[in-house]
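Lay summary. Proteins are chains of building blocks that fold into shapes, and those shapes determine what they do. In this project we predict the shape from the chain. Here is one chain we studied, written as its sequence of building blocks.
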Amino acid sequence: MKKQLLLILNIFIAVLLFGQGMVKEKLVITSKILNRDVHYSIYLPSDYNTSARSYPVTYLLHGHGDADDGWIQFGEINRLADKAIADGTIPPMIIVTPDGFKSFYINAADGSLNYEDFFIQELIPFIEKTYKVKSEKRYRGIAGLSMGGYGALLYGLKYPKLFAAAAPLSAVVWNDTDISLASDDMYNSLFATADKKNVKGTDRINAAWNQNSPLKIIETKSVEELSSVKYWIDCGDDDRLSIGNANLHIAMTNKKVPHEYRVRDGAHNWTYWRTGVIDALAFIGNSFHQK
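And here is the predicted shape, written in a compact code that computers can read:
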């Protein structure tokens, strides 16, 4: 008990010494690609305004139905990051949480919302121009939950030259059967071309789906390219998405792609993500370190 109290006291003192990070919510980037304003929130380490250094950055993506401030309001990422930085679990880093709408962070096949183009071509350059961010791949990570886990995984697979590490939490990982049985609204908004809405069954297995299926990307890309990004995969044993994540683990194992795979006790909820996000950020943070 005394050791536990001493540890808590030391962490409390460390937080006081390091101070609290700064959170700015509902900031705006004007996107020419999307032809609209996009909100983002950002966490800046406590010494951001007093230090001359630049920081590594992690893009932290929200789930379906949330917005840019979800990781702050429900995930308490600022409080968790303050503590983790203070006790040395993660390095000081900037954390960016953009509004992904219900886009799944991809370009819609019908051209209605080219979110992926916005993220890669506008958001990342904007953040690196506006804030003190290290702009090399080795200092850039991405993570997310559910829909955002899918986005983090997909960007790691599609853009291995941009990200050092990807940490999908409870990621949506569908196979051909899953997308064949998905709701019309979901399929039409993401993968249906303008001239082929409301198709059913195997007719849904089109080029847009194949280009945005993590399992198919793993099949087609080389081991060398896939292995250039470090992956942390985490999904609860009671999560409805656990089978998809297990399939992802199997696909990477069969392809001999190095990765970390975790199954913890828990479901598809904020309790699970709050208790797992720092481990994910620590994994990403470790990739920022020099060997």
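What the prediction tells us: The two ends are 37 Å apart (CA to CA).
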